[in-house]
Amino acid sequence: GQNIDQPTEMTATEGAIVQINCTYQTSGFNGLFWYQQHAGEAPTFLSYNVLDGLEEKGRFSSFLSRSKGYSYLLLKELQMKDSASYLCAVRDPDAAGAGSYQLTFGKGTKLSVIP
Amino acid sequence: DSGVTQTPKHLITATGQRVTLRCSPRSGDLSVYWYQQSLDQGLQFLIQYYNGEERAKGNILERFSAQQFPDLHSELNLSSLELGDSALYFCASSVSGLSYEQYFGPGTRLTVT
Fold first, then answer.
1. Cα-Cα end-to-end distance for chain B
2. Which of A4, A77, B53, B84 could cysteine-pair with A106, CB 3.0–4.6 Å?
3. What is the distance of C-alpha B31 from the center of its chain?
4. A29 CB near a chain B CB, below 8 Å?
5. Which bin fits B17, alpha (ψ -120 to 50), beta or left (φ > 0)?
6. Rounded Cα gap, residues B52 and B36, in angstroms
7. A108: nearest CB among B42, B55, B97
C-alpha cells in the first residue's frame, strides 16, 4: 500500500518562491508525479521524477529523494493563476504484475497566492 | 483541453438508483483510468482498462463496475447509490498501460440526494 503526506494548505505572495513537500511510504515505487488542479477542474500533469535529483521545467521544479521517500515541488515567480491544489502521486506496479501501474494520490496542498 | 471527454458533466440522482458515466479517451490512447474525488478522501484510483481488458483495480466498490468497448470508450456503472457516492468522477487516458503521463477529462459531478 501507499501512504502519502503533504501539507493541507499553504499561502504565498505573488512573485515569491514556494516549496510544497511530499513524503511517501510505499510498498512499491515506480515514479512520483505532481499534478495541478484548479477548483472544480481536472488535474493537469506538471512533472514526473523516477530518479533522484531535480527536474526543472520553466517556473516549476520537482525534486526526488528515493532513499528518504521525499519530494518537493518548487514554484518560482508566483502568479495569481498558480492558486490551485497541488497533488503528489506515487506510481507503483500493479500487484498482479500485469505490466500496468496504479497512481496513488495524496490529498493535495491548496496553495493560495496573495498580492 | 486534454482531448478526453466525459458525459454527463453533472448528474443528480436519488439514493438506490443506478447511473452510467461515459468517457472517450484521447485519439490513439488505449488505456483508460477511472478516479473518484471526494472532499475528504482526495483523488482515488478506481480501475484501469487497456484495449478492452481490465488491467488494474483500486478501491472500487462491488456496487461499481466498468467496461471498455471496442471503440475504446469506457463506461463506469454505479448502482445502489448512497449519499457517500457523491463526488467528482474523473476519467483519464494514456497511450499505454505503462505510459507515465495520464490526461484527465473534465469530470462528472455526481450528487446523490
1. 31
2. A4
3. 12
4. no
5. beta
6. 21
7. B42
Tens of pLDDT, residue by residue over A36-89, are 999 989 999 999 998 999 999 999 999 999 999 999 999 999 999 999 999 999
B101 lies within 8 A of chain A by CB? yes
The pLDDT confidence band at residue A106, using thresholds 50, 70 and 90, is: very high
d(CA A44, CA A34): 9
Do A113 and A38 meet the contact criterion of CB atoms below 8 Å apart? no
Q: Does B52 touch chain A (CB under 8 A)?
A: no
CA distances from A12 to A36, A68, A97, B105 (A): 16, 26, 42, 29
Three-state DSSP at A81 gives helix
Amino acid (1-letter code) at residue A86 = Y
Residue B83: DSSP 8-state: G
Alpha helices in chain A (DSSP H): none
CA-based nearest residue in chain A for residue B98: A100
In chain B, DSSP assigns E strands to: 5-7, 10-13, 19-24, 31-38, 42-50, 53-57, 64-68, 74-78, 87-94, 103-104, 108-112
